[in-house]
Amino acid sequence: MDNSLIIKSVNKFRGKTQVLEDIDLSVAPGERLALLGHNGAGKSTLIKSILGLTPIHGGSISINGAAPGSAAARKDTAFLPEAVSFHPALTGREQLSLFANLSGASADVPALLERVGLADALDRRIGTYSKGMRQRLGLAQVLLGRPKVALLDEPTSGLDPISRQDLYAIIDELAEQGTAVLIASHALTEVEARTDRIAILRKGVKVADNTLAELSSEAALPTRLRITARAGEIEKLAQQVGGTRVNGASVELCCSADQKMAELRRIAALGDVVVDISMTPPRLEDLYRHFAKENRQ
Q: DSSP letters of 177-190?
């Protein structure tokens, strides 16, 4: 199946400063892509370019075969900005009904508002909503019209932990119905478990783009093993396995992915001196630091 969002060799300048450099990126129908990067890395500029809000200076962008900013692209694209804003005098029902009428989408507005947790506030004025409630209303807008591409810029901003879980459940539903979802986020722990692929920008350059497993393999970062000794046996354990003493009762050591099983077998052979082993593979935060580090060429 063709990709819903295709970005090829995109370049963007702001004056003499290049803010996007030869960006290649694609998102398939039903795929959830996390777009990561420091402030100023180019994430927002890329999203604005996809929306047709700012011109590019080289390359191309296609949204389900249409050019950014065209009527077809606007019809197929949903966008949730970080700082979502609505008319404060309208109620949630009125605002969402207005969006539905403008888009020509047939929508059960009360059901949509209930889906995002605003059933009790659908007839309250938006000016009384908290930031999290406005974010939920923005998500309800994204659900209108079954978009082909959904662009979510820091979608969990202002949401409590339960609401964040609800939001990602809705994102999963969007993907299941075939929407290509791009999530720009700083919440690394969240996107690590709830996306299919990770792309990282640094100073306008794409420095990583793959699944979490493949990025881990490419980065070759070490896995940490923490071995807890039986009471009074820490000295013996430390002598046998090496590594670094931790809390007077454990030893921590690092190994590469291909050494992991050999190390586990070596530790298991020590017998009763070992009472516990915990293993911590590289996390997305570690991978992000690796790929986005400032001295990376």
A: TT-EEEEE-S-HHH
Q: Find tokens 């998102």 and name the residue.
A: 27
Which contiguous run of DSSP H or E holds residue 43? helix 43-51
Q: How many CA atoms lie within 13 A of 26 on its CB side?
A: 13
In whole angstroms, give the CA distance from residue 241 to residue 218.
27
Is the pLDDT at 297 greater than 50? The verdict is no
Pair 147, 76: CB distance under 8 Å: yes
* Tokens found for residue 54: 């700012």
List the one residue out of 220, 229, 180 whose CA is nearest residue 34.
180
- Look at the block and give the residue holding tokens 């966008």: 79
The neighbour count for residue 12, using CB atoms within 10 Å, is: 22
pLDDT per residue as tens digits for the range 78-120: 999 988 889 999 999 999 999 888 877 778 899 999 988 899 9
β-pair type (77-80, 149-153): parallel
Angle (deg, nearest 10), helices 131-143 and 92-103: 30
Integer Cα distance of 182 and 263 in angstroms: 39
Distances 181 to 59, 80, 131, 240 between C-alpha atoms, Å: 22, 11, 23, 50
Q: Measure the CA–CA gap between 140 and 117, rounded to whole angstroms.
A: 10
Predicted TM-score (pTM) of this structure: 0.84
Q: Of 160, 108, 104, 105, give the one whose Cα is nearest residue 136.
A: 160
* pLDDT tens per residue across span 131-163: 888 988 998 998 887 899 999 998 887 778 888
111 contacts: CB under 8 Å, gap ≥ 6:
none
CA 167 to chain centre: 12
The CATH superfamily of 5-217 is: P-loop containing nucleotide triphosphate hydrolases (3.40.50.300)
Q: Which helix (H) or strand (E) holds 33?
A: strand 32-36
